[in-house]
Amino acid sequence: MITAENTYTKEYLEANRSYHITSSAYKNYKQALIFKLIFYVLFIMWLFNNISSVPIFKIINCIFAVYLVSRFIACLIEIWNCFFSKKRFIPDKFRRQFVFSDDSFGMISHSENYSAERYKRYPSLHSAVEWGDWFFINFTAGEVCIIKKTDLTNGTPDDLRLLLKDKLGSRFTQKGDAS
């Protein structure tokens, strides 16, 4: 059994953000936002150039235009957050324990007013990544457990790497350096 313990500090959250920004999914997301913005602009221009003289079509076109403009504004906000915003990550007060057993991965969270345990069998884990000094264990595509190699209390990074390779197969990857 391999175990680790930590409390997420800014260092953990910044490592997660740095890894996320270097991922191909993030680059694809940025490109998709740009294409989405261009689509909205072109469609709004087309809509305003083709306003019909029939009153019912004018009303329908105006309603559709309002919807497109609202989607355009939402897309601008997403682009701002993606390219320009420096999101402020706030560390939490949870003390986490991670347990890697032979058949499942578990996370136990504790704070003054809260306690939770979550376990998942390896076949149902989304993926895991080793990146520099970090392991990112993904419960789902959007939920990640961040473990620094020095957080391991029982076992070594090599032991954890071998376990994840064995249990996750191609869903475990080793990426380049974190620097």
> Helix fraction?
40-55%
Sheet having the most strands: 5 strands, antiparallel
Strand order, main sheet: write it out: 4-3-2-1-8
Q: pLDDT average, as an integer?
A: 83
H/I helix tally: 4
Strand content: 25-35%
Terminal CA distance reads: 30 Å
Radius of gyration: 23 Å
Oligomer: single chain
What is the 3D form? elongated
Strand-pairing-aware structural class: alpha+beta
Q: Which stretches are low in confidence, meaning pLDDT under 50 for 5 or more residues running?
A: none
SSE succession: EHHHEEEEEEEHE
Comma- or semicolon-separated keywords:
179 residues; alpha+beta; four-stranded mixed beta sheet
Structure description:
With 179 residues, this protein is an alpha+beta fold. It is 45% helix and 26% strand. It is built from 4 helices and 9 strands. The strands form 2 sheets. The protein has a 5-stranded antiparallel β-sheet with strand order 4-3-2-1-8, with helices on one face. The chain has a 4-stranded mixed β-sheet with strand order 7-6-5-9. Strand 3 (104-110) and strand 4 (115-121) form a beta hairpin. Helix 2 packs antiparallel against helix 3 (55-84). The two termini are 30 Å apart. The model has no long low-confidence stretch (mean pLDDT 83).
